[in-house]
């Protein structure tokens, strides 16, 4: 069975069709529509399509979703992508950028590690200069 793709604009009103998001429609005759409906109703969501939590489609995030995970703005995520710190894909020349969830989580973990290392370094420097022994409450009173 072959179903020919046509532009969605050529589909007549009241006609059953499928589309995969490429602007083309696959018109279904009555028997094919019945088969599709049967397949959809006989399968549960878990069995209709094999689902693996590590599928590429589930792992791809928009820059907005990545921003939410990282706790930054979408614009900041754009800068991170432009700097090459997180790889991304773009399905069209000017389309949205998509990033792997694993890469975003790895970037977040590396950023947290860098921050912890910098904090530890500042604590060591403060300790070496006896700055950790300063009574800051007393020190700050001189500025009141």
Automatic annotation (TrEMBL):
Tell me which residues make up the Helix-turn-helix domain.
60-110
Q: Which residues form a coiled coil?
A: none
Q: What is this protein called?
A: Helix-turn-helix domain-containing protein
List GO molecular-function terms, semicolon-separated.
DNA binding
The record's annotation in InterPro entries points to: DNA-bd_dom_put_sf (IPR009061), HTH_17 (IPR041657), SinI_DNA-bd (IPR010093)
| Source species | Bifidobacterium animalis subsp. animalis IM386
Cite a single Pfam family from the UniProt record: HTH_17
């Amino acid at each position: 069975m072959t179903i020919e793709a046509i532009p969605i604009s050529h589909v007549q009103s009241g006609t059953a069709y499928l589309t995969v998001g490429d602007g083309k429609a696959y018109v279904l005759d009555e028997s094919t529509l019945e088969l599709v409906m049967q397949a959809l109703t006989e399968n549960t969501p878990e069995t209709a399509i094999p689902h693996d939590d590590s599928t590429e489609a589930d792992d791809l995030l928009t820059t907005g979703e990545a921003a939410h995970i990282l706790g930054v703005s979408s614009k900041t995520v754009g800068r991170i992508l432009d700097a090459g710190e997180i790889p991304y894909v773009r399905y069209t020349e000017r389309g949205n950028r998509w990033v792997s969830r694993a890469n975003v989580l790895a970037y977040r973990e590396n950023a947290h590690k860098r921050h912890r290392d910098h904090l530890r370094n500042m604590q060591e420097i403060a300790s070496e200069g006896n700055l950790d022994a300063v009574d800051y409450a007393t020190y700050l009173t001189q500025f009141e």
